[in-house]
Amino acid sequence: MGEDFDNDRGFDRGNREMHTVVCAECGQETEVPFKPDGSRPVYCRDCFQKRRGSSPPRGRGGGGDRPPRQMHSTVCAECGKDTEVPFKPDGSRPVYCRDCFQKRRNSF
Ligand SMILES: [Zn+2]
Ligand SMILES: [Zn+2]
């Protein structure tokens, strides 16, 4: 049960090389665990969190504004009315308007 250095685990805390940089936001010196290459601003922990917190959450899952499904105009095989279906009729089977579709479905 030692506090031996287990070096085979590598990058644990303490071993990471820190680089002193100046925060691009508040100007304070801070240390970061990576070497800034100058291509983008580096922030101290506070500013990093602030920025992170203030930026609107974006991403998957929340959406709700996906594009409407493409509709295809066709003629109902039952009543002959114009209707739209969310798939492209390939002509191999009859397409029904919503009413007729439901009617047929219920009749089964
Ligand atoms: Zn800062
Ligand atoms: Zn119909």
Write structural notes for this entry.
The chain has 108 residues and is α+β, with helices and mostly antiparallel strands. The protein is 19% helix and 15% strand. A hairpin with a 6-residue loop joins strand 1 and strand 2. Bound molecules: zinc ion (2 copies). The site of one zinc ion has 8 residues, from helix 2.
Oligomer state of the chains in this structure: single chain
Q: pLDDT under 50 segments (min length 5)? A: none
Write down the overall geometry. Answer: rod-shaped
Beta-strand content bin: 5-15%
Entry keywords:
108 residues; alpha+beta; two-stranded antiparallel ribbon; two-stranded antiparallel sheet; 2 helices; 19% helix; rod-shaped; binds zinc ion
Summarize the structure.
With 108 residues, this protein is α+β, with helices and mostly antiparallel strands.
Question: Secondary-structure blueprint of this entry?
Answer:
Blueprint: E1 19-22, E2 29-32, H1 45-54, E3 72-75, E4 82-85, H2 98-107
Antiparallel strand pairs: 1-2, 3-4
Residues 23, 25-26, 28, 43-44, 46-47 line the site of one zinc ion (ZN).
